[in-house]
Automatic annotation (TrEMBL):
Coiled coil segments of this chain: none
Species: Sphingobacterium alimentarium
Entry's Gene Ontology molecular function annotations: oxidoreductase activity, acting on paired donors, with incorporation or reduction of molecular oxygen, reduced ascorbate as one donor, and incorporation of one atom of oxygen
Signal peptide: 1-19
Keyword field contains Protease: no
Domain of life: Bacteria
Residues covered by the Peptide-N-glycosidase F N-terminal domain: 203-382
Name of this protein: GLPGLI family protein
Keywords: Disulfide bond, Signal
Length: 555
C-alpha cells in the first residue's frame, strides 16, 4: 500500500511539473483586417501565463516595453517594464485579474480551430468584446482583460480595433527569465507607473524652485545666471541629438513669493546664428546691442534683427496671476478653493531642429518690482515620434519687443505709437519652402481706455502686401478666477482677473499665431507689423509685446 501511494505521489509530481505549455500568437486588427508587425506572444499553462512581444524574445528593446507575468492560482498580475537602457521595474497588481464584469452573449465562432464563446464588458466608456475558450484549461489573454473567462482568442474595442489569435502551438517550456518575483523586487503601483512614464521621454530640468525677483542680492550666480536686478534667470543646457519627428514641450510651474500682481512672463532661448547675440547685451550692457529707432526719442535695444544681430526666440509668453499661493489666505470665499500654483505647458517642437544636439541658453523673465517676487520651475521634455508639424522645421528670429531686460536697459515697446511702427528687413541666403511667421502678441497699459482693455487690430505685411489681419482678444479670463486670490474686486461683482484683455489673462499662456507666408525666394524681404496703439493716459502708457520667428521647412 505504501509503495502504491509513493508511486501515485511521484506520478503527481511529474504531471504537475510537466503541465502543457502553449504559445499563442496574437496580431492587431482594424476593421476586421490584420495590421501591423511585432505580434503579441502569450505563453501559458494551467498555473501561469506570460504576455510579451515577439521583438522582446529576440533582442533588447529600443523603447520601453511592458510585459505581464500572471500567477493564475493567486490571481496576481506582475507587470514588468524593460527600458531602452536595460533597466527593469516590476509591480504586483492583484486588482485587475477579475475587476471587469462580463456579460455572456449568445454568439460563438471558431478561431484557430477552437470554438469560442462571446462575452462583453465596458471599460472607460469603451465597448469591449472578447471571444474565449475553456477547452485548454488555461487562463490567458493578450492584454490582461478577460483572464478569469478562460483563454481569450479575440479582443475587440468599440467594434473596430483589437487583437486576434492567429496560431496556437504546444511548446516544451516557458522562455527563461519569467519567474514570479518576490516582494522585494516589486514597486508600489504608483511608483511603478511614474518610473514607466518617465522612461518614455527625455527630461531636461532647467530651473528648480528658482526665485525671480527685484533684488540685487538675487544676482549671485551658480549654474543659473541672473540679470536685470534678478528679474531674469538664464541657464545653459545640453540637448541631445534627437530624431526630427520628435516633439518638444516646455513646462513652467509658477507661484507667488510675495508679488501680488499679474505680471508679464517669457520663456526664451538665445538665438546664436549671428556674431552678436542677446547674451552679449545681458553681459556687457544692452547699449551694446543694435537700436531700433522710430523717431519718438526712444531707443528700442535688442528687439529687431539686423545683419549682425538676432533677438531672442520667445518659446512661451505667460502671465502670472494675482498672488497665487503666497496670498491664498488673504481672502476666503464660500465655495472657492485657491490653487497652490500655476502650471503652463506648451508644445515648442518647431524649435527642436534649432536645439537638437546643441548647448543652448534658456531663460525666464517675470517683470516685477518685488523683493519676494516669484518662484518658478522649468523643464524641457522631448518625446519620440508622432510630430505632426515640427519635422525638419528651421527657425530664424526676426523680432521680440517683450522687454525682458526691463530692469537692465530695455524700454517699454511703445514704438507702435509712431507712424513707422515695426519694420524688419532680413535676407535669405537661399529659397525656402512653406514659410510661416510664428507671431505672439499682447496689448498692455493704460487704464480703462488703454490697449490692455481695448481691442486693437494687428496687421502683418510681407513685402508691403497684407498677409494677415486679426484682433487679438481674450474673453475667457473669468475661467481662471481660482488662480487669482488677491485680484481686485469691484462693486459690480466682477474681479479684475475676470476682465477681457488684449490676448492674455492673469494665469494663462498666450499662444502663437502661425501666419502662412508661402515659399520665399533668396534675397531681401521685409515684414511690417501695424497696431493702432493708444495714446498715453497721464503716467500710464499703452504698449505691445510682439515676437516673431520665421519658420520654414528644411530642404
Amino acid at each position: 500500500m505504501k509503495r502504491l501511494v509513493f508511486l501515485l505521489f511521484t506520478n503527481f509530481i511529474f504531471l504537475a511539473s510537466s503541465a502543457q505549455v502553449y504559445k499563442i500568437t496574437y496580431k492587431p486588427t482594424r476593421n476586421g483586417q490584420i495590421v501591423g508587425n511585432d505580434p503579441i506572444i502569450v505563453f501559458a499553462d494551467s498555473k501561469k501565463s506570460i504576455i510579451t512581444r515577439e521583438s522582446m524574445l529576440n533582442k533588447a528593446p529600443s523603447r520601453t516595453v511592458e510585459e505581464s507575468i500572471v500567477d493564475v492560482a493567486k490571481r496576481i498580475i506582475y507587470k514588468k517594464s524593460t527600458f531602452a537602457n536595460g533597466k527593469t521595474v516590476i509591480t504586483a497588481d492583484s486588482s485587475s485579474f477579475s475587476k471587469n464584469t462580463f456579460q455572456a452573449k449568445d454568439e460563438q465562432k471558431e478561431i484557430v480551430g477552437y470554438k469560442a464563446k462571446k462575452s462583453a464588458t465596458s471599460i472607460n466608456s469603451n465597448a469591449i468584446d472578447i471571444y474565449y475558450t475553456t477547452s485548454l484549461g488555461i487562463h490567458a489573454s493578450p492584454n490582461d482583460i478577460g483572464l478569469d473567462q478562460g483563454l481569450v482568442l479575440e479582443y475587440t474595442r468599440n467594434g473596430n480595433s483589437g487583437l486576434i489569435a492567429t496560431n496556437i502551438e504546444q511548446v516544451k517550456a516557458f522562455p527563461s527569465g519569467y519567474s514570479f518575483p518576490n516582494s522585494e523586487m516589486t514597486l508600489d503601483i504608483l511608483t511603478y507607473r511614474d518610473e514607466v512614464w518617465k522612461s518614455k521621454f527625455i527630461q531636461i530640468p532647467i530651473f528648480r524652485d528658482e526665485k525671480i525677483c527685484f533684488d540685487l542680492d538675487n544676482l549671485k550666480s551658480d549654474s543659473v545666471l541672473r540679470f536685470a536686478e534678478g528679474t531674469v534667470i538664464l541657464r545653459k543646457i545640453k540637448v541631445p541629438e534627437v530624431s526630427e519627428d520628435s516633439q518638444a514641450f516646455i513646462e513652467l510651474v509658477e507661484k507667488s513669493n510675495g508679488d501680488a500682481y499679474d505680471r508679464t512672463g517669457s520663456v526664451f532661448m538665445i538665438a546664436e546664428d549671428q556674431d552678436l547675440t542677446f547674451l552679449d547685451g545681458m553681459n556687457k550692457g544692452m547699449v551694446t546691442l543694435p537700436k531700433y529707432d522710430v523717431g519718438d526719442g526712444k531707443n528700442y535695444l535688442g528687439m529687431v534683427r539686423t545683419v549682425s544681430f538676432s533677438p531672442i526666440f520667445e518659446l512661451m509668453r505667460f502671465f502670472t496671476p494675482f498672488g497665487v499661493s503666497h496670498f491664498n489666505d488673504r481672502l476666503t470665499l464660500k465655495g472657492k478653493t485657491w490653487q497652490d500654483s500655476v502650471t503652463y505647458r506648451q508644445d515648442v517642437s518647431e524649435f527642436l531642429h534649432t536645439m537638437s544636439g546643441k548647448e543652448i541658453y534658456v531663460g525666464t523673465y517675470i517683470g516685477n518690482y518685488d523683493k519676494g517676487g516669484h518662484i518658478v520651475s522649468l523643464e524641457l521634455t522631448i518625446h519620440p515620434g508622432n510630430s505632426n508639424y515640427g519635422n525638419h522645421t528651421q527657425a530664424l528670429s526676426l523680432f521680440n519687443t517683450t522687454n525682458v531686460m526691463e530692469m537692465g536697459g530695455q524700454t517699454y515697446p511703445t514704438l507702435f505709437g509712431s507712424e513707422k511702427g515695426l519694420v524688419v528687413e532680413f535676407k535669405l541666403k537661399s529659397d525656402i519652402k512653406n514659410a510661416r511667421l510664428r507671431y505672439i502678441t499682447t496689448g498692455h497699459g493704460g487704464w480703462w481706455n488703454g490697449d490692455e482693455f481695448v481691442p486693437k487690430v494687428n496687421s502683418i505685411f510681407l513685402n508691403d502686401a497684407l498677409v494677415f489681419k486679426f484682433t487679438p482678444w481674450r474673453v475667457d479670463c473669468g475661467s481662471y478666477r481660482l488662480y487669482n486670490p488677491v485680484s481686485g474686486n469691484f462693486d459690480s461683482g466682477l474681479s479684475s482677473s475676470d476682465l477681457s484683455r488684449s490676448n492674455w489673462c492673469p494665469g494663462t499662456i498666450t499662444y502663437p499665431n502661425y501666419i502662412d507666408l508661402g515659399d520665399l525666394k533668396a534675397g531681401k524681404h521685409k515684414i511690417r507689423v501695424h497696431i493702432p496703439q493708444g495714446a498715453a493716459e497721464g503716467d500710464s502708457q499703452s504698449f505691445w509685446n510682439v515676437s516673431g520667428a520665421l519658420l520654414f521647412d528644411k530642404n
